[in-house]
Amino acid sequence: MRVLIAVVLGGAAVAALVVRSAPVADEPEWEFRPDYEMRVPYWWPGEGLVYGHFGVTGVFVPDPLSEGDGPRLVLDLPWAVNFPQGDPDKPRSEQPPEAVYEFRLGVLVPGTLHHPGVFVPTVGGRAIGVDDYRPERGGKKAPRIYNLPGTIEPVPAGRKRRPFRPPPLSPVDGWAGDWATDGLIRREPAPPPRRALVADPGRWVGVLRGGRVAVGKLDAGGVFTPDPGVEPVADAGGTTATARLPDGTAAEVPVINRPSGPGQEMVFELQRGALVRGTLKADGRFVPWPWSRVLWWSWYERAEDPEYRIYNLPGRIVDVAPPPRKR
């Protein structure tokens, strides 16, 4: 069985490590069948239930706007894919957190879903590859993948299982990182990087949520995890917020999802080495652009003018000196 162990952000490339694990006796083979057009109901903070689909990175993309920039169709449904579903006897607002996986470009990150649809990664949890996922193991039901862009299906008799390969992106959007259709490194040369990320995993940041600023840190993939030892603070409307850190000291932390312009800002959101284009709203919500193509980090490194900033950058960008010309 082939297992995609991890997808990491590493300098100039998005890389994957594929290894083999022993099959489990007397259990059926399963495979992930992508369906990037499968429409699902999703709880969108501040807007309610909307229809859309999950892209290859696991990011929710809403259906196109109803009229120009007008309101999106908001649905009154009792269920959404990102609602906790741990206790069928309790109403939606009283559901306890549900243990789930979050799909991120073929990697399944363990965590919990909290009402009304917030995913919190499990710190220190073990991520697995989607090729290693089984709905049941030894008669025990596995946590569901709430944002799976497709389905997990049994492998038909007489056919080998098909391992998941992220699809290549269009060259129109620039270089598609180091992925190729066969999983090998790109064969054509790419221009040298113009910029690089200097990671800062210890940096404290604030994220605006529901009129308050949660304080925590960003991991290497741009995922924010609030620190349980830091109380959220009231939003004062500035680019920074004053928070009391776990050691008792007061610190000014940047509010990373505050639009820099009046009302909203066009930005990139980093998603485990992929970049999603969208809009930061005044209340801190990131709204992906409908049907916008996803870019890879290596495109951002090499682009002459990336045009937009990455609001959840886990560090800072520095310019890279061009390599000396060969004589």
Question: Any chance you could write out the topology, listing elements then pairs?
Answer:
Blueprint: E1 2-10, E2 13-20, E3 30-34, E4 40-44, E5 48-54, E6 60-62, E7 98-104, E8 107-114, E9 118-121, E10 128-129, E11 136-137, E12 140-141, E13 150-154, E14 195-199, E15 205-209, E16 212-218, E17 224-226, E18 233-234, E19 240-244, E20 250-254, E21 264-271, E22 274-281, E23 286-288, E24 295-296, H1 297-302, E25 315-319
Antiparallel strand pairs: 1-2, 3-13, 4-5, 5-6, 7-8, 8-9, 8-10, 11-12, 14-25, 15-16, 16-17, 16-18, 19-20, 21-22, 22-23, 22-24
The biggest beta sheet reads: 4 strands, antiparallel
| Structural domain count | 2
**Average pLDDT over all residues:** 76
Strand content: 35-45%
Q: How many helices in DSSP terms?
A: 1
Indicate the overall shape.
globular
Strand count: 25
**Percent helix range:** under 10%
The secondary-structure class comes to mainly beta
Radius of gyration: 21 Å
